[in-house]
Each structure stands twice: as structure tokens, then as C-alpha cells.
Amino acid sequence: MNNIRFNQDNSCMAVASDTESRIFNSEPFGEIYTNDSPVFLLKVLFSTSLTIIVPKEKDNRLLKIFNLKQNLKICELIFPSSIVEIKINKKRLIVVLKIGQIYIYDLSYVKLIKIIEIEPLGSQPFVGDLSNDDHSLLVIPLKYVSTVMAGKSKNNGIFTDPEPLVKFNNFAEYKDPKGWVLVYDTINLKSVLIMKCHSSSIRKIVISDMIIATASSKGTIIRLFQLNFKQSEDIKLTRILNLRRGHNSAHIHCLKFNTDCTILACGSENTIHFFSLKYNEDIIDGHNYGTSTLKTYEAGDGDEHETDYNISQSSLLDAESSKSSEDLNENLANLLISKPIPNEIEENDKDVDNSIKNLPYKDYFNNLVLSPPRRSFNIIRLKDHKPGFTYHYVKQFAEIIGQSSDHDTT
Hints:
Blueprint (H helix, E strand, L loop, with lengths): L2 E4 L5 E5 L4 E5 L4 E6 L3 E6 L5 E6 L6 E6 L4 E7 L4 E6 L3 E6 L3 E6 L4 E7 L11 E2 L6 E5 L4 H4 L30 E6 L4 E7 L5 E7 L2 E6 L4 E8 L7 E9 L9 E4 L5 E6 L2 E6 L15 E7 L4 E9 L9 E7 L15 H6 L6 H4 L15 E2 L2 E4 L9 H15 L5
Parallel strand pairs: 20-27
Antiparallel strand pairs: 1-2, 2-3, 3-4, 5-6, 6-7, 7-8, 9-10, 10-11, 11-12, 13-14, 14-15, 15-16, 17-18, 18-19, 19-20, 21-22, 22-23, 23-28, 24-25, 25-26
């Protein structure tokens, strides 16, 4: 099995393996496409006939765009390195290469509009996601681009945009970028947000309906960020929600929202957790400007500490911390808030363009109330089975997902 994915509206599921590729309709469940050729990646654009196919070859450098309904090949694209991942929405096609490049295409013309340099991925899977809406936001770990942005790109052989994604005045501040993510606007081709989501490296990222969900390599806490973004305005963070997967470390393989973003599914070793994302009394949008009280959770890898902070329009005020029996969560006092650049550095770097400094990530704690982590309302434990692909496994998986999505979370 090389790839198994739902499309953007969950209306169908694409399966790719070394022996065949298939597409299944979700409701009613049934096979609508099959091909006996080996396929590495298979993507379907919403409920359309537009399909992206990466044939399984020695180097996986070829990408084909098909209209399956008309059985028509629209075009072929050949890349300088192996394709690792593909992301697609109605406006953009994103192709990630093993050597550390992200190709951004205008899907309406299949026209290349930008190549982003990132760190070479090697044998590691790509971590990141592209939003399905018209904002077309690409979310990736900051560690992918931190070295490149400092002018130390190791990728050669093809011309890319000479301007970095983000320019740093004080790069030393981000020399250990684990836990940070970058939000990139693929429509206007610019970075719009940088924030710290975890204290350890980012393992999984998913974005849907302007909600970003992240999981770290530790896998105990999943964190959600609700964004408010208009193309003509600055991006705003309006909500943060913590979800408790468990107390023991786990390798999270998948994060998936349901259609209306009221449920998040988290897949780890033989376990699927389902979390309710509905608003309640302890999760609110902030509209109270001025001084407010912010409840945060100090970061670390051991026990969780709960701290109350008074937040003003301009700064965080000192406060006393109190410990709780919960496991340690991330330090939301430092989350999204970069340390101020020392005066002596500011004096030396007055002439340096600092787009990171201007990115909006500090001023939204004024209006947020954060709660302790929520726990899952349902857990499915999967039996171990031998590797391989059968129609029975796919049907069983689809039935499990369908039953869980119908669960009443109230």
C-alpha cells in the first residue's frame, strides 16, 4: 500500500499500491475506478474528474493529470527529483520533491508560479498541509525553511526564487526551530504567520476550514488553532484548543477533520481517537480588548503546570504560577510569542528587512481564553493484520469511519 486518502470533501477515497490503483465512492460505498498499473500517489480533486497520478517508477519523477470521466490525459510534468507528496485544491497544485523543493502551480492553467527551497527530506515523509478553501494556505514546520532562510540552502541544480520565504534579523533566536510552524499564502505568495505549537518537533499538520491541527513527535497533546484571515487584512488567531490523546508517547500517523470540522480523528499505533471540537462554555472567541486573564499551560516533557497570566494590549504581565496534577502541556505563554530582539541587535540591524518581526503572532492572546486539554469521546482499537491490500480492508475501514462520523458528540 503506497497511498490511501479521502478527497477534500470526503466523497471518495483513492487507493494506490504497487499492483493497482482504485477509487471508491463513499456513499453509497462502491468502486468507481480501477487500474492494474502500479501507482505511487493518487489524488482526486473534490467530486470532479480531475485526478493526479504519480506512477510507481524507479525515481517517481513523473506526474500525470487526467480527466477520468473522459479518459483524457491533460498533461504530464517531469521533475528533477523524486516526488514525495502532492497537495491540491481548486486553485493550487503543490508538488513536494525529495531534494527539498516545493513547486506551486496555478491549477487553472497548470502554470508554475513559484519554487520554494526547503531542507532536503531524504527518507523522511513530508509534514505539512494545504487548505482546501480559496485562501489556499500552506502550513509547514519552520525547521524546513530556517536554514534556507538564513542563506544556507544546500539545494542546487535548478533556479528558484532568490528571495527567501522569511528574512530574519536575529536568526539565532530560531536556531532550534522545532515546534514552530510557518503559514504561507500560496495565492499572494508570501508568509503570513509564524507560531510555536509544541516544544518538540512537529510530526503531523492538517488544516481545514481555517483550523490548523498539529501533533508533535511526543504525540500526547494535539493542538488546534482557529484562524481568521481575509486576503486584504492581517491574519488573526481567535481560538486555541488542546486535545489529550494520552499520557504515553505515541507515533501519530494521521489527523483528519470531518466535513464540518466538528470532529477530529487522530490515528496512532492501532488506535483511532475521536475528539469533539464543538464550542462550549470553556472555549470562547475573544472580543474583550484591554486587560484580561489568560489561562495557559507551561511546556515541558513531564508534569503539566497551570498558570494564570494577566494580558494587556502591549505585554504579558508577571503572575504567579500554580501546579496541577495534569501532564505537562506546552507553554502557551511563549506559544506564538517570540522573544523581543535585544536593543543592541536592533541597533546593529536597523537596515535589515525583518518580515518575521512584522508577522502577526503576538497580539492575539489579549482576546483568548484557553482551557485544559479535552479528551476523546470515542476510541477505536484496530486489530493487527498482515501487510497487503484487499477490497475487504478498504470496505471495513470505510464502514468504521462512517459509523464514527455519525456518533452524537453532544
